[in-house]
From TrEMBL:
Membrane topology listed for this record: Multi-pass membrane protein
Record-linked InterPro entries: Oat_ACAT_DAG_ARE (IPR014371)
Protein name (Swiss-Prot/TrEMBL): diacylglycerol O-acyltransferase
Name of the top EC class for this enzyme: transferase
Presence of the UniProt keyword Endoplasmic reticulum in the record: yes
Protein source organism: Brachypodium pinnatum (Tor grass)
GN (gene name): DGAT
């Protein structure tokens, strides 16, 4: 087919003007905050365990359904819709991990209150409830496994970070090339 790369498929004036998608992306942090409030209420025994689980199910379902509805209503460009769903999927995965880990922490702290388990001083720090600081760090950290605290080095390896960013840019460009050059013609011809 020759060289088929078009910038309009990935970047168009429409993708820069997708304000509803940008606003949807900027409102996604509401869901982790709602999960934190749910955990705080459950930790203080203001709401029942089953109600807390139901609220987590509603929050995690909403974090996926909300962007889909916005994308379908706006008829967005491919790139902006993809980026929004990518961010929403990561948020969903993180919230599922957050809910599961905090459920396990609540069960462990209940068993400690009953005297069924022995706890060491390091475990004592990890069975405390989630804080806004731990949630923000988790949402920004490149991990999908929530922990109340993470082991960290005292410095940032700048060379490693730069290499990872370069890899991300190179492989994103390669992915775009493969989609535009080979996958799109097959899809267009199949129609």
């Amino acid at each position: 087919y020759g060289l088929l790369i078009r910038a309009g498929f990935w970047f168009s004036a429409r993708s820069l003007g997708d304000w509803p998608l940008l606003m949807c992306c900027l409102t996604l942090p509401i869901f982790p905050l709602a999960a934190l409030v749910d955990e705080k209420l459950s930790q203080r025994k203001i709401i029942d365990e089953n109600v807390s689980i139901l609220i987590h199910i509603i929050i995690t379902t909403s974090v996926i359904v909300y962007p889909v509805v916005v994308i379908l209503k706006c008829e967005s460009a491919v790139l902006s819709g993809f980026v929004l769903m990518f961010i929403a999927s990561i948020t969903w995965l993180k919230l599922v991990s957050f809910a599961h880990t905090n459920y396990d922490i609540r069960v462990l702290s209940k068993s400690i209150e009953k005297g069924a388990s022995h706890v060491s001083s390091t475990d004592e720090e990890n069975i405390k409830g989630p804080t806004i600081r731990s949630l923000v760090y988790f949402m920004l950290a490149p991990t999908l496994c929530y922990q109340p605290s993470y082991p960290r080095t005292s410095f940032i390896r700048k060379g490693w970070v730069i290499r990872q960013l370069i890899k991300c840019l190179v492989f994103s460009g390669l992915m775009g090339f493969i989609i535009e050059q080979y996958i799109n013609p097959i899809v267009q011809n199949s129609k």
